[in-house]
Amino acid sequence: MSSLDVTFVTADRTVWTGQAAQVVVPAVDGSMGILPAMVPTLAILGTGTVRIIDEDGHVDERTVSGGFVSVDADVVTIGVDDAEAVASGDARL
After folding, report:
1. pLDDT tens profile 19-50
2. Burial profile 9-39: b = 16 or more Cβ within 10 angstroms, e = fewer
3. What is the largest CA-CA distance in the chain?
4. Which of 1, 21, 23, 88 is 20 to 30 A from 34 (CA-CA)?
5. 4-90, what's its fold?
């Protein structure tokens, strides 16, 4: 099974790094799902939730306001100014 190599960082820390099955980001022109074997992409992020679904199905959600996402050869890099954890009661699957 293919996976994504994800690095999610803010200006001062690494938020999440590892292998994921899927990533969903709030691009400025709408929600964007990222799966393995996706064409290379660079997008600007708006305000919303970044969802990282790991290979075991665990979902990590963080609220962001702006930033970027880069996808190239199953390597996903997400860079934002700040990322706040979504409360577990607010998680959407």
Report:
1. 999 999 999 999 999 999 999 999 999 999 99
2. bbeeeebbeeebbbbbbbbeeeebebeeebe
3. 34
4. 88
5. ATP Synthase; domain 1 (2.60.15)
70: which strand partners?
42, 77
Contact yes or no for 43/69 (Cβ under 8 A)? yes
CB atoms within 10 A of CB 45: 20
Is the separation of the CB atoms in 36 and 4 below 8 Å?
Answer: yes
Q: For residue 63, what are the β-bridge partners?
A: 49, 84
Q: Extract the tokens encoding 57.
A: 């199905």
What is the model's pTM? 0.91
- Using alpha carbons only, what angle is made at residue 30 by residues 27 and 33, rounded to the nearest 5 degrees? 70
**Pairwise CA distance, residues 77 & 42, whole Å:** 10
Q: Are 45 and 32 in contact (CB under 8 A)?
A: no
